[in-house]
Design brief:
Blueprint lengths: L9 H13 L4 H7 L3 H4 L1 E4 L2 E4 L7 H13 L2 H10 L25 E2 L2 E2 H21 L12 E5 L6 H9 L9 E5 L4 H8 L7 E6 L6 H18 L5 H4 E5 L2 H7 L6 E3 L16 H7 L1 H20 L6 H16 L3 E6 L7 H13 L17 E3 L11 H6 L6 E6 L9 H18 L16 E6 L4 H22 L10 H15 L10 H19 L3
Parallel strand pairs: 5-6, 5-7, 7-8, 8-9, 10-11, 10-12, 12-13
Antiparallel strand pairs: 1-2, 2-13, 3-4
Helix pairs in contact: 1-4, 4-14, 6-12, 7-12, 7-15, 12-13, 13-18, 14-18, 15-18, 19-20
The structure holds 6-O-phosphono-beta-D-fructofuranose (F6P).
6-O-phosphono-beta-D-fructofuranose binds next to loops.
């Protein structure tokens, strides 16, 4: 079925015309014109409150954006995703991360299989394993209790568990130590295992494909480290478990598939941490809290599936983001959580958003004529205020911001939380309204848009809802652009070229290099240094 490229639709053209009317209007005027805007442009769902009033939009903007969403059949596409249709067309796969958080009594038959039963069977196995490690019944090869749990994975098999472990550390078993190894840089491995006792260390090798260079390299180093210290290959059975969709490769690596936790090809890597990829997190916070987190995901899924577009948080955020991305020419979005536990939240969102919507062709293989996915970045406030906010306040770029805050702190220390929250609110106010001054260098022009997202407390449930909010925001935007948000062919080329260069770096004989002159020179320089290091015995 052929569809019109988005920029040719009348709804897009109407937005272009509307942008010409609105592009120079200041938020000060918008607030002056409708003093109740702060309450009117707000919505709530799944425990998340969204104030989107400090955006450069009017009722008309929203009307036009919702019309665009409807013209792009957003609701239909959303329902197709939830129903398990193969909307990931380039890989001919269903996209069903939402099934990972369906309650036990639900049912969803996809390609002839009730996936909910499979999901809960794995969750139950994960729970039994997590309980065994937490209680000390799962011991290492020498009979010692496991004290260290290290997840080895990269991309979606690392960022989710690592981000969520940080985010939910408050709920974790503090007698256990958790580590995350992702980079093929040996420093990551060396520094993470430094000082740990192999007899007390459990590795969770997480890889959807079990074919990723970084993860397999780190997994082999981990195995050498354990076997070398404990003196027996048999130690592998008690110190390694795997999370993957590929049982054959897990077996080939030497992990008994009895110690493998499965997931499915309908879970994209960057959408996978509510699956068995979250095993390290489940060991940290326990099965009950993990299930609470899944309930939070599910609550936001249901909100996205059932709320009218006009009150639908991911839809509103997706449309407003697209308004800046495509009509104002904003290149980036800053995500600024005012909570130290969310230290890695924007790094997580980077993969979620940029790997999903960083696409240049539409679902019919045509070059997209509009801007697609934004650059996502950020770090927790208030730290960022003393680093990069200056550019947002007085630089020349338009940078829409998402501020995320919590009404209650998990660590009441003096009046820190009041100060933190006052800063969050003050930043959104300063960005929107700015300040006039005599001296030009003091002028803060304002009119920098932001969303404010508020939740009660950072609980497992809240984190699930927040992540699902962004997942569906990304889906909303991808659907409007008409791209496939669920493949990632762009990362393949670099992987293939690395495979070609590895033997060229390692060959004893000078290899015949046939790259461009820059790459050839870099390889020669590295080889020379490698030879010097060897000669010096390093
Ligand atoms: O290279 C990108 C990627 O394929 C991501 O999409 C994925 O999350 C990551 O690599 C890791 O893949 P795997 O889980 O198969 O090791």
């Amino acid at each position: 079925m052929s569809f019109t490229p988005v920029h040719e639709t009348p709804e897009w053209k109407a937005l272009e015309a509307h942008h010409r009317e609105l592009r120079d209007v200041h938020l000060r005027d918008l607030f002056a014109q409708s003093p109740d805007r702060g309450e009117r442009f707000a919505a709530e769902g799944a425990g998340v409150y969204l104030d989107y009033s400090k955006n450069r939009i009017t009722e008309k903007t929203l009307e036009l954006l919702f019309a665009l969403a409807r013209a792009r059949r957003l609701e239909e596409r959303r329902d197709a995703m939830f129903a398990g249709e193969h909307i990931n067309v380039t890989e001919d796969r269903a996209v069903l991360h939402t099934a990972l958080r369906l309650p036990r009594d639900a049912s969803l038959v996809v390609d002839g299989v009730d996936v909910v039963k499979e999901v809960h069977a794995v969750l139950d196995r994960m729970a039994a394993f997590a309980d065994a490690v937490r209680s000390g019944t799962w011991t290492g090869h020498t009979g010692k209790r496991i004290r260290n749990v290290i997840n080895v994975g990269i991309g979606g098999s690392d960022l989710g568990p690592a981000m969520a472990y940080d985010a939910l550390r408050h709920y974790s078993d503090r007698s256990l130590h958790f580590g995350f190894i992702s980079n093929v840089d040996g420093t990551d491995f060396a520094e993470t295992v430094r000082g740990l006792d192999p007899a007390e260390t459990l590795f969770i090798i997480s890889s959807k494909t079990f074919g990723t260079l970084e993860t397999l390299t780190n997994a082999h180093s981990a195995r050498d480290w354990v076997v070398g210290a404990l003196g027996s290959e048999e130690a592998v059975a008690k110190h390694f478990v795997a999370v993957s969709t590929n049982a054959e490769r897990v077996r080939a690596f030497g992990i008994d598939t009895a110690n493998m936790f499965e997931f499915w090809d309908w879970v994209g890597g960057r959408y996978s941490y509510p699956s068995a990829i979250g095993l390290s997190l489940m060991v940290a916070i326990g099965p009950e809290q993990f299930r609470d987190m899944l309930a939070g995901f599910h609550a936001m899924d249901e909100h996205f599936r059932t709320a009218p577009l006009e009150r639908n948080l991911p839809v509103i955020m997706g449309l407003i983001g697209l308004w800046y991305n495509d009509f104002f020419g904003a290149e980036t979005v800053a995500v600024l959580p005012y909570d130290q536990y969310l230290d890695r939240f924007s790094a997580y969102l980077q993969q979620l958003d940029m790997e999903s919507d960083g696409k240049h062709v539409d679902l019919e293989g045509r070059q997209v004529q509009v801007q697609t996915g934004p650059i996502v970045w950020g770090q927790p406030g208030t730290n960022g205020q003393h680093a990069f906010y200056q550019l947002i306040h007085q630089g020349t770029k338009l940078i829409p911001c998402d501020f995320i805050g919590f009404l209650q702190t998990l660590n009441p220390v003096g009046d820190h939380h009041d100060l933190l929250t006052a800063n969050l609110f003050a930043q959104t106010e300063a960005l929107a309204f700015g300040r006039d001054a005599q001296e030009p260098y003091r002028v803060t022009k304002g009119n920098q848009p932001s969303n404010t997202i508020l939740c009660e407390r950072l609980e497992p449930r809240t984190l699930g809802a927040l992540v699902a909010l962004y997942e569906h925001k990304v889906f909303t935007q991808g659907t409007i652009w008409g791209i496939n948000s669920f493949d990632q062919w762009g990362v393949e080329l670099g992987k293939e070229l690395a495979q070609r260069i590895i033997p060229e770096l390692q060959a004893e004989e000078e290899p015949q290099l046939a790259h461009d002159s820059s790459t050839n020179a870099l390889i020669r320089r590295y080889r020379a240094a490698r030879a010097r290091a060897r000669a010096a015995g390093r």
